[in-house]
Amino acid sequence: MSTKNASAGLWSTLEPKLSPFILETLATMGFTEMTPVQAGAIPLFMKNKDVVVEAVTGSGKTLAFVIPIIEKLVRLKKRFAKNEIGALVITPTRELAQQISSVFSIFLKDSVTPLLKHALITGGTSTLQDDICYIKEFGPDILIGTPGRLEDLLVGRGAAKNHVNTKELEILVLDEADRLFDMGFSQSLNNIIAHLPKQRRTGLFSATMTDGLAEIVRAGLRNPVRVMVKVEDLVSKDVQRIPAT
């Protein structure tokens, strides 16, 4: 695993260049400069690298994967079939999944990106059959959710079998990966990852690195680049809130 030092700068200086609608949305959100984690991770994602990012809440990590997911899928210039997905974001809690979904909603306005849709898959407020029906009807390209429900949906337990096709998946993101392991989701994660195509980009975001995460990195990521953001990198700087992630 190689290591890359992150440095912040203006969004307009990022290479590869971001799409105009992304830059415009960032401007409306009041974000003119990148945080270190964004400056480090986004170019790597855009250049088809797997990344391991050590960054705390408040570092701007949500945009560090939301933006490259949207950019890569938009640049494919293709429509996924209704049962196909292009990106998958796995989080430890429903609340975090909802926050991430709200960030995608800001960027994925129908008038700008009509080819991309996203869906929140967490259980609790919907049944598995509800989620299956939603996917059949609306065909989301990006799924954001928690491990248990996503495992039911993707791996194909019972009624969920064959309703979601992951063969065209471009990007997998594990957000707050240390918490995913702390909360006992390691087996579900392994089952999901085993079901996904190997030819994909993977991003693992975590506040800390543990032995369990190191095993996931070895098994699920290909020659990943490591981006580390120290706590002192965030001191005396405006912290992005979108919402508090």
TrEMBL record:
Keywords: ATP-binding, Helicase, Hydrolase, Nucleotide-binding, RNA-binding
Single Gene Ontology MF annotation: RNA binding
Domain of life: Eukaryota
Enzyme class: hydrolase
A GO CC term attached to the entry: cytosol
Keyword hit for RNA-binding: yes
Pfam families the record matches: DEAD
SMART domains: DEXDc (SM00487)
Domain DEAD-box RNA helicase Q: residue ranges: 11-39
Motif Q motif mapped to chain: 11-39
Domain called Helicase ATP-binding: residue spans: 42-227
UniProt catalytic activity: ATP + H2O = ADP + phosphate + H(+)
EC number: 3.6.4.13
Family: Belongs to the DEAD box helicase family. DDX55/SPB4 subfamily.
Name listed for the protein in its UniProt record: RNA helicase
